[in-house]
Design a protein that fits this description.
Blueprint (H helix, E strand, L loop, with lengths): L1 H11 L24 H17 L8 H19 L2 H4 L4 H21 L3 H7 L2 H11 L2 H10 L2 H14 L3 H6 L4 H25 L5 H24 L19 H13 L1 H28 L1
Helix pairs in contact: 1-2, 2-3, 2-6, 3-5, 5-11, 5-13, 9-11, 9-12, 12-13, 12-14, 13-14
């Protein structure tokens, strides 16, 4: 039954680009939905697994289910809506897409704690093998290392800065595999980052989590400011496509830099303040208990 449902979902994922390889123009925007199998299939399989595995009887809270579907829909919109092809012609749209993946979809997914329902969604044999593999020393050691706050902070920071190197970023505009690798590394590193801050060390890690959030907000703001105030375009490959949207390549870059600098920086500040508040409340409870 489950395999049949997945096959139906996979069949529904076949889609055709609305542009036939041509650069997106304003009059095409609202019809530019992309249902590429490499994106749609993983989204549909994840949705099918979660829908099959998420049950209140298994201890999955309604709040977690709502958060998961909010995160899933945000992720789907970022990857299949017109925002995706728009990012191929405007750097600012590409930047907005990345910030949605990193600062909206990833934390929503992490807050939903999806691992248990996704495992329950697997067929019994696959679930048992996955559970056995997860208990091995090698997997346990790797998971502890990769979700340690410092490791996750470094991995996420390297991904952010490395992909903004002009040669790598421009390669995403001409090679779909490179583009997919960029989005995958941004999203997965963001999942690790938020997971490490919220769950890796439990409530004992609030203090360090505040530091990691604020320092991430700081270095991403620096990158955004560099893009905003640069007098030369970092990504001249956009030169041929921005004119149709009433921008120069430098103006487009400045808008993208501002997106990374201001609204994205604000999200990190809000998250840092929330973690700081949780840290203070925990400290008050400890003091009350001690007294």
């Amino acid at each position: 039954m489950f395999l049949r449902a997945v096959l139906v979902l996979l069949a529904c994922s076949t889609g055709i680009s609305a542009h036939g390889g041509e650069a997106l123009e304003p009059h095409d925007l609202w019809t530019a939905w992309r249902f590429d199998p490499g994106t749609t299939i993983p989204l549909l399989v994840t949705a099918a697994l979660y829908a099959r595995g998420a049950r209140r009887s298994r201890g999955i809270a309604r709040r977690e289910m709502v958060l998961f579907w909010m995160g899933w829909m945000t992720l789907a919109l970022a990857l299949v809506s017109p925002l995706h092809p728009l990012g191929e012609v405007l750097f600012s749209a590409h930047m907005a897409q990345h910030e949605i993946l990193i600062l909206v979809a990833a934390p929503l997914m992490v807050l939903s704690r999806p691992l248990v329902p996704l495992l329950w969604g697997l067929p019994f044999g696959a679930r048992r093998r996955a559970g056995q593999a997860a208990k091995t020393n090698a997997v346990q050691s790797f998971w502890r290392w990769v979700t340690a706050p410092l490791s996750a902070w470094l991995i996420h920071g390297v991904a952010l800065w490395a992909w903004h190197v002009p040669s790598l970023f421009e390669a995403t505009l001409t090679n779909e595999w490179v583009h997919a690798a960029q989005h995958t590394s941004f999203f997965l590193s963001a999942l690790l980052f938020w997971w490490s801050l919220l769950y890796a060390r439990g409530r004992h890690g609030y203090g360090s989590a505040v530091v990691y959030v604020f320092t991430t907000g700081l270095h991403t703001s620096i990158l955004g400011a560099l893009l905003t105030f640069s007098r030369v375009p970092w990504y001249p490959a956009y030169q041929s496509s921005v004119a149709a949207w009433g921008l120069t390549v430098l103006e487009d870059q400045q808008v993208g830099g501002l997106i990374m600098w201001v609204p994205a920086g604000l999200v990190y500040v809000i998250a840092g303040l929330a973690l700081f508040g949780a840290w203070m409340r925990q400290s008050d409870r400890v003091m009350d208990y001690a007294s």
